[in-house]
Amino acid sequence: MSMNFVNEPTRAWDPKNRLREMINEGSDAANVDKLVELLIMDGFDFSLTADAMTPIDEAERVVSVGMGIAVKSEMYLIENLAQAAGAAMGCSRPAYERLKVLPRERFVGMSGEKFTGTLYIACAISGAQQHLKGIEKAHTVVAINRNEKAPIFRHADYGIVGDIRTILPLLTEKLNSDLPKPDPNAKPAKREMPLYSKTTATADGRYVCMGCGYEYDPEKGDPEAGIEPGTSFEALPEDWICPECGVSKSEMISAVTRG
């Protein structure tokens, strides 16, 4: 069930002058605690709920993901956080085009959907200009990225440097822990089946670069590097590198799709 967002946030809105506050309290858990504290001080109420598939241009909050997710099976991290934050789900254009994590109408950017709501949480999104054009009118932007030099941090109000596989579960747990206890006499809320889960993934031989999101497909090989179509990832030479960013074979992980 969707609910209206009332009287939030309280901090003055100035999208041309983001706070650019990096949260570095020490541990990942401490950073997450500080982020939630700041958002609550800004007036955000995390006891509210929203439909994860609310159209981007109608949503008050969006949790969005970029190519840093690397594999589609990890989308449950985004869905869980969106549910805890009372947000819809979105993605960057590359995450839509290359990973197919969400339908086309959910990618945010200059050539996609524009988000003008109150809270945008960018997860593993580098911050290309095309994407930034889609969130320039957002009230509050939170960036979570493992690369401390990612451009997204220069266009965010709050930023945490860290791996989304660690940060997002902590943030989800923190937001859920602050929810009011349900009325024992109330009728149980109807819960839709999740779109993604840890158990709906099957490996298919593809591998994804953790540096740039390049996907090695054994059916295509890497002809420019002399790798014939039909060559499995395991059979690649140990000195083979990502053709797009040059990271080593060891920096790539198995890609999976929903079963």
UniProtKB/TrEMBL annotation:
InterPro entries: DHS-like_NAD/FAD-binding_dom, ETF_a/FixB, ETF_asu_C, Rubredoxin-like_dom, Rubredoxin_dom, Rubredoxin_Fe_BS. GO terms for molecular function: electron transfer activity; flavin adenine dinucleotide binding; iron ion binding. Keywords: Electron transport, Iron, Metal-binding, Transport. GO terms for biological process: fatty acid beta-oxidation using acyl-CoA dehydrogenase. Residues 204-255 form the Rubredoxin-like domain. The keyword RNA-binding does not apply. The keyword Metal-binding applies. CDD domains: rubredoxin. This is Acyl-CoA dehydrogenase. It comes from Coprococcus catus.
